[in-house]
Amino acid sequence: MDQVKKGLEGVVALDTQISFIDGVQGILRYRGIEIEKLADLSYDAVSYLLIYGKIPDAGELKPFSMELIKERDVHPHLLDMLKFCDFEHEFLDALRTAISVCAHFDEDLNDISEQANVRKAIRLIARFPTLVAAFYRMANGLEVISPDPSLSHGANFLYMLRGALPTALEAQAMEKDFILSAEHELNPSTFALRITASTLSDMHSAVISGLCTLKGSLHGGAREGVMDMLDDIGSADNIAAYVQEHLEHKQRIMGFGHRVYKTYDPRARIYRDIAMQVATEKGKSHWFDLAREIESVMYHEMVENKHKPIYPNVDFYSGVLYKDLDIPSYMATSIFAIGRISGWIAHFMEQYADNRVIRPRAHFV
Ligand code: ACO
């Protein structure tokens, strides 16, 4: 038996054509294209790229977007059934239940042909934002708002959330958020999804595996942790004490560090830019300024204590952006999932296309 690699650190589990990460140089590419370039496209175009392997031309993108728009509505009975969900905490539990219920309404549920998988994929990508926005409205005693077919994926989500049109910059920020969250190679939730897919289970089941894994505070749950941390710290005077106390007690500072990136996460840089633009448009830079200061204190604390510096990851400035978009922290992980769904779908398809059941061994002690 080979040596055990705790946390499978450094283990290469499979070949993929979906994304590439260079954790030393801070490079991320989806299907060979730099994340910096992709961040300026639409979420629909990036979803197409992830699923079909190429950036769509206008003739390919339009029908794909039309399909997504057509599938945005969720059955009213589904929302009625979900009213019993616990909306006191992160919506991820409600989303997991919703996808499980959606499976029962899906006529293609147990059809695992490629065509059926594409139909299910479109429905899942289209409905995640509708569900999460509906939870927010239900949790706050507000009427659920139907999707607006004239709006982009990101603009429509903010519209369904607020009942008012977002500004052009807010809509653009939401699109970027979904794009930056869409895909990240064999992160824990994607790996969990691929294990489920490798047993030839269905797409909804695999996505639920992904959701359950995304929830944890060391993975997607860190975004909520960042937002709560910003509230806890409150003002720049409190940063040094907060960071020092956490590091002394070997507690994690949320939104910092990464298993793969040993340098700045390229997504964090793009989030930082768009968060700054939104803060400037709104004339409220409190959270952004606080975050910049936390980043600086964190860097100096690590270096002064002879550790390697730890940089912000994808969850740090996305948490700041959500605060400036007036999104509550209890929605953060679910919104992450709205973006991640298209990457999950791509991995599901890739696993199916060349499958071998994923079944490692354990070392008995
Ligand atoms: N705060 C304080 N110290 C940290 C942090 C952090 N956020 N991250 C890593 N470290 C320290 C560890 O204490 C450890 O120090 P030591 O060598 O003195 O014991 C060293 O850096 C290496 O950390 P590991 O835990 O070995 O790194 P690992 O690859 O296992 O963990 C992880 C990566 C889980 C992301 C970690 O950095 C972390 O817990 N970060 C905070 C949670 C977070 O932001 N998660 C989101 C990640 S991105 C995503 O999943 C979407």
Automatic annotation (TrEMBL):
It holds the Pfam family Citrate_synt. Keywords: Transferase. One of its GO terms (biological process) is tricarboxylic acid cycle. One of its GO terms (molecular function) is citrate synthase activity. InterPro entries: Citrate_synth-like_lrg_a-sub, Citrate_synth-like_sm_a-sub, Citrate_synthase, Citrate_synthase_AS, Citrate_synthase_bac-typ, Citrate_synthase_sf. It catalyses: oxaloacetate + acetyl-CoA + H2O = citrate + CoA + H(+). Coiled coil: none annotated. The active site is at 258, 315. The keyword Transferase applies. Its EC number is 2.3.3.16. It comes from the Archaea. Belongs to the citrate synthase family. PANTHER family: CITRATE SYNTHASE (PTHR11739), CITRATE SYNTHASE, PEROXISOMAL (PTHR11739:SF4). This is Citrate synthase.
